[in-house]
Amino acid sequence: MACSFTRCGASLLALTCALLPALAYADEADPDASPSIIVVGQKDAPIEIEPRGLSVSLGDEQFKAVNAFNTEDLMKYAPDFFVRKRYSGDSNGVPGFRGTHSTQSARTLVMVDGFVVSNFLGNSFSFAPKWGVVGPGEVRQFDIVYGPYSSRYAGNSMGGIVNISTRDPEETEAFVTVQGFVQPYRQFATRDDYAGYSGEAGFGWRQKDGPFSVRVTARHFRNDGQPMTFLGLVDLRRAPSASESVVTGALVDPQQLRAAAAGTQIPNSPGTAESPIFAAQSPAAITQDQAKIKVGYDDGAIKGQFLFAYWHNLDSQTAPDCYLRNAAGGIVCDGVVSLGGKADRASGAVYSRTIRDEYLAGLKLAAPVSDGLTARLNLSTYQIAKSDGYTSSSYTTGQTGGAGTLARQGPTGWLTADAMLEGKWRAFELSGGLTANRYWTDLVRSNVPHWRDDAGGVFSTRTFGRTRQLSAWTEARLPLDALTLTLGVRYDNWRAFGGGLIGTVTDRRYPARKDDAVSPAFSAEYRFGDGTVAQVSLATATRFPTVGELFQGSLNGDGTFNAQSFDPGLKPERSHDANVLLVHDFGTLKLTGSLFYQRVKDTVFSFTGFNQNGVTTSSFKNIDRTRQIGAELIAEVRDWPVDGLNIDANAALIDSKTIRNRAAPAAEGVQFPRIPRWRINANLRYAITPALDASLGLRYASRPNTDLFGKQRGDTFGYTSELFALDARANWKWNEHFRVSAGVDNITNDRAWVFHPYPQRTFLIEAGWTL
């Protein structure tokens, strides 16, 4: 494009500043008019992010009905929404909206009190938002907006936006919450009970006759998640030798046999007759510590907030569950074995330990500039101060403390800055601002003689790179009696630079790249006066590639370049979006209908599969065109058919397809991977007595395709399956200060898969005290 950031950004800001004073004289509008917001969920608190299209706000009424092991659980019944959470304490919980694939993490903008915690260093399950910087007990509100319909937000809002608002103290206060939970897990030959616990506490103070407030919270979390990976033997295509141990205990998965009979089996996947399962990778022993301080200032005119959050995460996997037994009954988990008259190799049951220390620091200020005009500034940084991943080279070296590898990441993190002016005169609003962000990463892999520490490490590979984005935007909101129009436009200027990949025999540095985009947005909302509201929203969005997609590649075992693992030449994703909403409030029943459409050019997709050794691999490529259309119906029932009974229920029908893929034409017209056609979430809450309430939750998603071509469909490890889960919870309020809760997730013990296994039936008991 011919328009540079300096010219376009300055033009947008100048236009905003020129129009702000002009609107100050538009005093004919109703001074009591308030923004017309369509929100599903709580009604007693304003939404904290700009709502365009479908908007959801969740608060204490919804939270008390959720078994919240972690913060992201609080959203589990939101309409047409899910979080790919494999176990409690999972750091790879990617949120998904509508037709967003469950590993397209870069399509969701997640914030805490307006500070970005989305990990846009990459675009996969490994780059989930940093949910762990917030404990579930400190969440005041979850706001969710579906789609990129506000110009305030970058193109990473292509899927949607989530903002977590934490509690501000209203007076001197304190709380303590403790949890205990257990999951009896039965899969293949693994039979174990995985348990965990957490403790969360905090206190708040507000100055009685002054502007300051302080809130301090901390949480300790410990859990053993179920095994995530099941390992298959590799057929060596020869007869065994006399020196190779004869073993038993390997399993052929009946579900894999069914997939094979239907012609939908994944090649080389564990559990097949050619590759029977011989082990479950170690359960993830998760330990997390979180601490946060928030200092507020509000003198009635100037408002400010400083936030600092620290998160420590230890993931230890040192107990592989090996099924093979030799003639003496000993455990076999490594090496070449003799099984059924043929030679097979057992490998992959390694030991690992990952240690991460991360923190978020943010500062925001808001102050009046003149009558009706407010200036806002928001600065934050997220730093991954330490990320060391140790892995043994084999099961044997894991047991003995022998050789392995170290993946050390750092310096890694991001900076974000937003400056804006907001003007409101009676019902008219005009705003504009400048935003900037910068992301950087550097990952070094080394071979170490003792896998538990870094002493004596020998360099293997290094990948590194940076991106930055500068943006300018303006947005106007114009009410015309029953009709309200919102218009906006955003300009983004993006640059990727400093990227490279170094190995023992490879040294590649990539030239800097730059690109820009102009993204307009429009929304029209009409109130009919009988409790009916209609809204039409249109937008375009551009999501530029992340550091990981561009540069965070890999090398082959001999140190040579693996050109398939990433792509420095990736094009940005560009979407065209539309949403139509129709809402009618009947009093006890509120119905919301939504139709949505999105067409994306150059969709960035990670092609994932098993290699010849049953190990997962992935590579990023552009797909020419994808398209999703869908319909959502949301019902909110209050105090009907009996007082105290509230029901939130929603259903979505989604058609998400690859329209054009010149690199792989066989994918055209096929339902996009991991996107179900049907998704249903519901939550029923009933106040049995003033002190006792109970809830029942439902989560359902129909079985999607596992691959891009619709040829891999199954209900076992490696596939994405149907999900059906019923949850229940009861809360007893003993007095004004003490409560006890008990619950169970997945009551029917449904065994669902998102490549990895979802949790089976899990029991929770919880106690809470407040001052």
Automatic annotation (TrEMBL):
Residues 1-26 form the signal peptide. It is found in: Cell outer membrane. Keywords: Cell outer membrane, Ion transport, Membrane, Receptor, Signal, TonB box, Transmembrane, Transmembrane beta strand, Transport. One of its GO terms (cellular component) is cell outer membrane. It is a multi-pass membrane protein. GO terms for molecular function: siderophore uptake transmembrane transporter activity. The keyword Transport applies. Belongs to the TonB-dependent receptor family. The keyword Ligase does not apply. It holds the Pfam family TonB_dep_Rec_b-barrel. One of its GO terms (biological process) is siderophore transmembrane transport. Residues 58-161 form the TonB-dependent receptor plug domain. Residues 345-747 form the TonB-dependent receptor-like beta-barrel domain. This is Iron complex outermembrane receptor protein.
